[in-house]
Design brief:
Elements: H1 10-13, E1 28-31, E2 38-40, H2 44-56, H3 62-79, H4 81-84, H5 93-105, H6 114-126, E3 133-135, H7 139-148, E4 153-157, H8 162-169, E5 181-183, H9 184-187, H10 194-207, H11 213-217, E6 220-224, H12 227-236, E7 240-244, H13 251-254, E8 281-285, E9 288-291, H14 296-300
Length: about 325
């Protein structure tokens, strides 16, 4: 049976939630990384500027790096999609990032300059460490509680293999086995492409003991900070989607006092307000949740972090 093509239909939605208060235990919970589990200690352009200036004497204004970074990044993604995985001119993701570095800092190409190569190596190394990133305070307690409840935890990220080193250095690898770390560079496509979510679901469904794929999809969860890249495509792929809106920037929370807010029609529900809705947690519909704090995940599954179950397995 194929993956559900219409996760917004009443027939699909009604099966997702069994009570008005909590969701059943998930088959797995998938997490985005950057902006969801960890964040830069300082703005990324500033970290580029500080290392380039202090360690290599490269005189590039911070405001230029800040303004050009998103432009150069998008240009390179367009020219060499998925961090150069399909490009004959880019051997690996490190080369992709090196292309960005030399263009951003306006230095000679790394293949033609030993100094430029040193700059690239230094920055690439820096951005795998806890000097570059910090883990949000609510992450470790939540992941530990979920693991203690026997919930398999996945990574689903538009990233390259350097993520393995980042997870290790941020002490997150204990929660995410490599075989449950799904990266766009490994899958061949990334979010918001639904193939990204379909591929993950297909792989894990084949290892599960659930009889039907629609039933399995009802137990699949994805958590991310992006409405466009995480929330929307995961729900459209038949999963349960969780928007982690730490800064309350989405219209879901900015219109908290206006139940009839104008969201995409497929994300609205007229089934009434569930009991656990509050200022930090919004149950938009049967398989669509928004929260401002990751620990709210424990609430929607009725997990008590102080009283974990006996199962600690993270295997599907």
């Amino acid at each position: 049976m194929s993956l559900s093509s219409d996760p917004f239909s009443d027939d699909h939605v009604k099966k997702i939630r069994e009570t008005h208060n909590h969701f059943p235990k998930p088959a797995f919970i998938s997490f985005d990384l950057f902006g969801t589990l960890y964040t830069p200690r300082e703005p990324v352009p500033k970290q580029y500027h500080d290392i380039a200036t202090r360690e290599f004497g490269i005189d590039v204004p911070l405001d230029r790096i800040s303004s050009q970074f998103p432009i150069v990044y998008e240009q390179l993604l367009s020219k060499y999609p998925n961090y150069g995985q399909e490009s004959p001119n880019i051997s690996n993701a490190s080369e992709w990032w090196s292309e960005l570095i030399v263009e951003l800092l306006e230095i000679p190409h790394y293949k033609q300059s030993q100094r430029s190569m040193q700059v690239c190596d230094r920055l690439l190394s820096h951005f795998t460490t806890n000097e570059a990133y910090r883990v949000y305070d609510d992450v470790i307690p939540t992941l530990k509680a979920l693991s203690d409840e026997g919930v398999p935890l996945l990574v689903s990220s538009n990233s390259d293999p350097r993520v393995y080193e980042i997870l290790e250095n941020l002490q997150l690898s204990q929660f995410f086995p490599k075989d449950l770390t799904y990266l766009s560079t490994n899958l061949g496509y990334g979010k918001p492409d639904r193939k990204f979510f379909h591929t993950i679901a297909n792989s894990l469904y084949q290892k599960s003991d659930v009889q039907s794929k629609p039933d399995f999809l009802e137990q699949c969860w994805h958590v991310g900070d992006s409405y466009a890249n995480d929330f929307l495509p995961s729900v459209k792929s038949g999963w349960n989607g969780v928007l982690l809106d730490r800064h309350r920037t989405s219209k879901i929370f900015s219109h908290h006092q206006q139940p009839q807010l104008k969201l995409d029609a497929c994300f609205l529900s007229d089934r009434g307000e569930p009991d656990i809705d509050d200022d930090n947690l919004r149950l938009i519909a049967n398989n669509r949740v928004a929260m401002t704090d990751l620990t709210q995940l424990l609430r929607i599954f009725d997990f008590d972090p102080a009283q974990p179950s006996q199962s600690v397995s993270n295997q599907i």
